[in-house]
Amino acid sequence: MERGYTVAQIREAEARAFEVVAPGELMQRAAAGLATAILRRLRASVIPALPTVIPTGSGPTVIPAKAGIPKPTRPIRAYGRRVLLVVGSGNNGGDALYAGVRLLRRGVRVEAWRTGSAVHAAAWADYLAAGGREVHSAAALDGLGGYALVVDGVAGIGSRPGLDGAVAEFAGAVARSNVPVVAVDLPSGLAPEPPFAAEPHFEAALTVTFGGLKACHLMEPAQSACGEVELVDIGLELPEPAFVRWEASDLAAAWPVPDASSDKYSRGVVGFDTGSPSYPGAAVLGVAGAVGAGAGMVRYLGSPEAAARVLDRFPNVVVGDGRVQALVLGSGWGDRADLGEVARAVAGEVPVVLDADAIRQLSGRGRPEVVLTPHAGELAGLLGWRREQVAADPVAAVRAAVGRTNCTVLLKGATQYLATPDDDRIWVALPGVAWTAQAGSGDVLAGICGTLLAAGLAPVDAALAAASVQALTASAYPGPLPPQDLAARLVVPTS
Fold first, then answer.
1. pLDDT digits (tens, 9 = 90+) for 189-200
2. What domains are defined for the chain?
3. How far, in Å, CA of 422 to CA of 187, rounded?
């Protein structure tokens, strides 16, 4: 699991550290990690090796590369390469300057642009003493193409989002160039935690952060602006995280794998009241998710019209009432009147997935074993918010939904957020690719989630595993595959 922390948590941890460690020591630890990451980035690039030259009497003969064989490459040395530090007045600027001192000692040509009237005084003095040069905004912009990389140390986690004036202009120019950016802690202009402001900000190829990850490193749309994220341990003692994002190992650990003693009942019987005469495809897709996820038995409880479509595709499905260990309701109901199914399911004892139209019929408070799987529009309807409000602050939205319903809530989208009544953490599923943003993907996800609940997984694990396995599969099969094809190809752990 990747653990993320709020700005307040990081500040509290820093304050505790300052009781036993000088503030300057923490900055030097951060600068050391930053300089190491920059040097690694500089050395990671490769250039074509020089061709083989054989001297002859009439001059050198160049031996060309053989057809079909790639040219060999050699690592680029960090020595002599140019790096620009863009530094603000805060500690991020100090981190960048102290890292610049270490780079200068390794033979890197370092220049610094002070973006404001103030800068970390001690770090600036050490930087100049080490031979660092100062450039101004116009020179930095004009000479942009000559830098191997730009180090963004303008603003930190305590700064307001957005960039102004020459810095905003420079960030735009860097984004249009091929010069990579290494961000200190986070790309300047980016909010460290939701709501992520759509303001001008740097786009980083690499973000080096200190102590602990922040929400912006784990969640979209901020995560994409961070690029690769490297965490440097500076010795902070951190509390329980506010945010937790699953990794592939968490999916593997949670996924129920049958053994020699398993049967269809121990693997889980999942019931579906989904689809309708108008939307029978929703029933087919949900069942496809269940079958692909390895349900022991699927029992279909919906309309006869949809049942015929389900059986045509999956003859192993059982139609009619009977024993179930989890229920999936709502996908493809359309405008079906409230017939009491939702209320009875919520009041029952088996775990339930409420998707799509069933969420509209939820009234009163439920229980943690009821999993809601809304997209932003459905969650907005549940809360009485505008869709834009949910999109701007999805963390606040899922927390509000949990507070209102007492259910476990999985918000589907580019980043899939989960909150539960059982604790205060925000959980984030494995990231996927945008190809899953298509009609029917949510129906499949609901079917997978119901299957995992029927197999005995806790609501948090079932919802995160369902979202994560779908994302993992889409990443394994990039391209415009319809949801039913992804369901048939689910990349499930097998051991």
1. 999 998 887 679
2. 2-43+75-242 (3.40.50.10260), 248-488 (3.40.1190.20)
3. 33
